[in-house]
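task queued by scheduler; priority normal; single chain, no ligands, no partner chains; default sampling; output format set to structure tokens
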Amino acid sequence: MADDSEPMEFDDIDRSGPPPQEFRALRDLIIGRRDKLPRRLAQVAAYAVESPDEIAFGTVASIASAAKVQPSTLVRFAKAMGYKGFSELQAVFQERLRDRPSNYDERLDAFDTHSSGRPVTTAMLDGFGKAAIRSVERACERIDPAVMDRATQILSEADTVYLIAQRRSYPITAYMAYAFGKLGIRTTLIGSPLGIDREMLNFAGPKDAAFAISFTPYASGTVEYMRQVAAQGTPLVVITDSPFSPLVPENGVWFEIVEADFEGFRSLAATLTVAMALTVSVADLRRSREKQNLHTV
């Protein structure tokens, strides 16, 4: 385990006000303070955002081991967030899971509580619909238009757009490949049944672009492929769910999207909204550029 020989006190952290008692507020606080934290506390911050279930269920010893810090560092981290001790901070992570079914059978059983005399299918439609609306509204409010413009610019200038996703994110890149094809834009959809994705990505270079999506728990293949194209100098655009995500590029553009859930099931409503807005924006920018070139000839 790493040595934690850092000063016990640091005066540039604002501890005014009571600590958050709701997970989303605590997560925002951790992200907002991460740049001011000493190295070991920043290490705990990254682990806490990436692995909230482990923080909720683990012991001080197991969490410290997984985060590669000393147990005393967890206490220091909790105090940096305004809590009296680590157990107080951990309770916020546990509260996040208290009412969430732990497996798919329990999640399905939980739908009965929403019916209130209505057909279960009606309750499901209402619940998933409201979760999707919340997700899309939050994404539209939080995404910086300048980031959207930059991502559109990167993708519009690419000779080929490589679309990278696995598991539940794969439908997004599959639909983008369909839409880009209809719009006359060359893409390569990574997810070949031949198992030659790495070889296909060998063709990606600085004149191309890669677009990738992954959410917690991050698909190892997506992370690996992103690192490969980054090493090849390919411009990157990413959708993920945390500033601590392994997909966040050092040089590139990324969007943070956290989908709302209904009884533990998450839709892809906000992700698809942003992806399609990007796809059509890319086609529109390319067409505008082509028109300008025609006028200047």
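post-processing summary
- Residues 144-296 form a domain with the Rossmann fold fold (CATH 3.40.50.10490).
- Residues 7-12 have pLDDT under 50 and may be disordered.
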